[in-house]
């Protein structure tokens, strides 16, 4: 797997340091709240788990599974809800946990869905932000790192279901996914 990586962008140590910083900021804000963390599966699973262990307040964990990629490496722009929440979020603060903000379609869809269900507030915590790919106006409230417009894998992010288990974030070699 490591041979398929063109360049490591963020090591496990760099990720841990940044997650500590994000967790401190989020804990300070939500210390007296009882938010629902909504992990966007499957990519945000690793990020959500590592962040959740750092958050020092009462919370519920839930997840949604959405898809906008069908079977390609390019977003279709059409978001489909595959697995819905199990918690009632009415009048609850919600923190969406996302692996990467890319085109913005998924998070735009989720923010509207959660607002329509009566969330008290909705914030986005994302490990990565790729602003050069944005097609829909969406901004993260808590961002780990900004990344270039490259195919990013590792630390939960995948290509064709692979590379999620890499302990770092890296750029996938074009030869791996190009037709």
From TrEMBL:
It comes from the Bacteria. It is found in: Cytoplasm. Its cofactor is Mg(2+). Its main location: cytoplasm. One of its GO terms (cellular component) is cytosol. It catalyses: GMP + diphosphate = guanine + 5-phospho-alpha-D-ribose 1-diphosphate; IMP + diphosphate = hypoxanthine + 5-phospho-alpha-D-ribose 1-diphosphate. GO terms for biological process: GMP salvage; guanine salvage; hypoxanthine metabolic process; IMP salvage; purine ribonucleoside salvage. One of its GO terms (molecular function) is hypoxanthine phosphoribosyltransferase activity. Its EC number is 2.4.2.8. Residues 12-159 form the Phosphoribosyltransferase domain. Keywords: Cytoplasm, Glycosyltransferase, Magnesium, Metal-binding, Nucleotide-binding, Purine salvage, Transferase. Pathway: Purine metabolism; GMP biosynthesis via salvage pathway; GMP from guanine: step 1/1; Purine metabolism; IMP biosynthesis via salvage pathway; IMP from hypoxanthine: step 1/1. Belongs to the purine/pyrimidine phosphoribosyltransferase family. Purine salvage pathway enzyme that catalyzes the transfer of the ribosyl-5-phosphate group from 5-phospho-alpha-D-ribose 1-diphosphate (PRPP) to the N9 position of the 6-oxopurines hypoxanthine and guanine to form the corresponding ribonucleotides IMP (inosine 5'-monophosphate) and GMP (guanosine 5'-monophosphate), with the release of PPi. This is Hypoxanthine phosphoribosyltransferase. It comes from Limosilactobacillus frumenti DSM 13145.
